[in-house]
Amino acid sequence: MTDKKDIKIKILGQSYTIKASADEKYIRKLESYVEQRVEELKGSGFDSKTQHLKIAILTCLNIADDLFQEKENNKDEIVDKIKSKTISLKEYVDQQILSFEKRDKIGK
User: Fold this and answer.
1) How confident is the model at residue 97 (pLDDT cuts 50, 70, 90)?
2) What is d(CA 13, CA 30) in angstroms, rounded to the nearest whole number?
3) 5 DSSP β-pair partners
4) Around 15, how many Cα atoms within 13 Å sit in the side-chain half-sphere?
5) How far apart are CA 11 and CA 58, in angstroms?
6) pTM of the predicted structure, to 2 decimals
């Protein structure tokens, strides 16, 4: 089991101490990404002094949207790869069958 360490992060001006087994550099990337997404919302007219909760919830929804879109894209890529491999495999099997059939005809 990996030891968890306390890491302080700051999001929306609030400090949080989280326990994480992940590398601190990775946690900093997460913190930076969330802050970047928060700043995007603040830039669209939300007041960070009075609308913390609204900004936090909308940021969560935006990040969840990113995740779902990425999953869909990956799923489509995987399906395309499977289709391509299946076609290649079918072509190979068809060639092998033809090769065996030709050998059988020559041998008779």
Assistant:
1) confident
2) 15
3) 20
4) 4
5) 14
6) 0.64
